[in-house]
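Exercise 7 asks you to align residues with tokens for two separate proteins.
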Amino acid sequence: MVVNKFPFKVGRLGSRPSSDVLSSNDLYLQDDQPYNVSRNHFSINIVNGNVCVMDRGSTMGTIVNAKKIDGDMPPVPLDKQKNEIIAGTP
């Protein structure tokens, strides 16, 4: 997927996304109970000229290129070629 808007926010599709005023995502992921994806899961941002992933305080964390991150961690820079981002657990 090519991302060309920053920040690019990703989260779970709720049963009524229009009624959730705290969820304004650019990409909504379908998930069923028990949930693996939070409604506000992670974002892709530009930080100091680098494209980075930041966990938005999700319950299950985010895995970026095999490294688990959470909302307390600083942004994780992405590789220039290929990246794998997992919302929650594999």
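Second protein for Exercise 7:
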Amino acid sequence: MFPEPEREPSSRELSGKVQPFPVPERIPLFPLPNVVFFPKTYLPLHVFEPRYRQMVADAAAAGQCIGMALLKEGWEEQYEGNPPIFSVGCVGRLASVQVLPDGRSNILLQGLERYEIHEEFFEKSYREARITLKPRDGSLSLDQALRRYLMGVLDEYLKADEEASPLHSLIRPDVSDEVFVNSLSTYLDCTPLEKQFLLEAEHVPQQARRLSDLIQFKLAERRGTGGWG
């Protein structure tokens, strides 16, 4: 149920030219305590709980969409039920589904758009929600000085973390602002709550500024520790 190691972003992801995909008004939800999903990124997951196996089967048969949601603090005592979740998440399209012989599955979600929950439904073994999409204003561009700063942070991060291979693909001029900022938000060392704060930003420049503030705070904390880890 928890994420497998990330793979390299595709060329379609890096260009930001992902074709619109029809998202149903009512979608299944996949709440996790440690995953925040961002548009125009990819999320591999290993699904083993019976209720989420059924969710994947149902989504594959109709709609092709799953809403990732972050569980709120205190979820442990209610995990087998339906503990509270944050109302803003990201819808993912089932890009691939590999069903294993024992019923578990490996799936790959393509991040489509942010959503906001308006009503939850509990008739099935997994929860569903009626949502509206929360697209960001694509006309707002990232300040180039801020992008250069974040590129410098990325360079520092890559030097400190040899396993951060997916981030190497971001050092290209054709990577869109949204893909660049969302990918950094995904891969850099932020807590789930911090990533939720980034996801809830109203537009990419605001998310970038929040990310910059978080990074500066973390760098100030970690000076003299020999890296990011």
